[in-house]
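User: For my dataset I need records formatted as: sequence, then C-alpha cells, nothing else. Please produce one.
Assistant:
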Amino acid sequence: MAINYNGDVAIVLDSQHRTPGNLRAFVQASIRSIKTGKSSDVRFSSTEKIEVVPLQTRRMEFSYLDGEDYVFSDPETYETTTLPQELVGDARNYLVENASVQMTFVNEKAVQIELPSSVVLLVTDAPEGIRGDSANNVQKAVTVETGITVQAPLFIKTGEKIKIDTRTGKYMERA
C-alpha cells in the first residue's frame, strides 16, 4: 500500500504492529519514498491518522534495455514506461523480451514491478557432467540467457529451456 508521509507519497514495504508490555501500541513500518527512492524505518502511534494513496496495478511486458533503463509496454494500449535499474532491482535477472510482469502505479508513476512466480529461460552454457558422478541428486552450475548462474541437474544441456522460481532463484524443472 502507499501512504502520504511528510508531504511525500511512500510505498509501505513492511509493517508490524507491536505492543510492548509497559508502553502503548505502535506500528513499525519500512517505507520507500517515491521521489527520492530512499527507504526508512518509521514508527506510528496507534492514534495517528494516515492518509492512504490509491494504487493501480497493470500487466506490462518487458520490451528492451535502453542503456541502463528498462522499457516496458502495455500490451493493450502500447504505451511505454521506462524504469531505472534501481527500481527493477533483482528482477532484471529474470527479464527477457516480452516477459510479462505486474507493475504498480501511484499517481500514474511506476513504483514497483512484480515478477510471476516462475519463468522459463534458455540455457546458454551447461558444462558436461562428469562420468560416474550420479550418486545423489548431483547438480552443476548452468548459465541462462539473462546471464545468471543456476544450479541444475546433470542432464540439462546447452540449448534447453528450464523453469526457474523467481522468488528463490532455483531450478524447478525442464520446460
